[in-house]
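FORM 7B: Structural annotation worksheet

SECTION A. Query
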Amino acid sequence: MSIKYSDSGFLDGADETKKLSFDVSGVTTGTTRTITMPDANVDLSSVGTPDDNSVTLAKMAHGTDGELITYDATGAPANVAVGTSGQVLTSGGVGVAPTFQTAAGGGGKLLQAVQFVEDKVERYTTSTSYTDTGLSASITPTLSTSKILLMWHISNVMVATTGYGVKLLRDSTAVFTNPNKYDPYHNTGSHRTRNSWTYLDSPATTSSITYKVQTANLNSTAVVFNESSSQSSLLLMEIGV
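SECTION B. Predicted structure
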């Protein structure tokens, strides 16, 4: 192969219609630009196409924190918009870019449980107004769609002429009230009972919430809660739906 040089550039010695010319019109006046050859063979036919595994993260265009790279229906690169905390990446099927969507939930699964036990902390009351029992527990739902299943048991000593009601509060909001509870198995004298309740709540939040149980006597006759040989408990269970 022979190469010639003329004012028009480099020419193929065998076919002078094949030319290689340089355009330096974009160079600043009075400035010399230098092309530096590496100590290696260079195939200019691949210029503009990077070698495999040669593009670093620093060479990529900046995006938004939390975005992902995907491909659109034409095969061109595209970005997946940023989701919100707790969402999951969801496929849209063939030809549709994935998106971040709210998780479908636990599907009836128990996601977490919190229990509080009040053991032998005796409370003597004659109050006919709702007052705290000491049964209280906090939970932070993982999903805003979750249900909270509550189960609580109250141990007490009372006489047949009295009874008590129960109120359940979510923070400061009453979500459940059960009027006076009697012991149906005794007609006279003092006796020990253990009463139980359940309630399914829909708090619709992912913020911490506190549940507590209150009681109110039917009349001013005393009721003793958590008598020395007994205990009461409160169980919170987050159920995904």
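SECTION C. Observations
The first strand starts at residue 3 and ends at 6. The mean pLDDT is 84.

SECTION D. Sign-off
Analyst initials: ____
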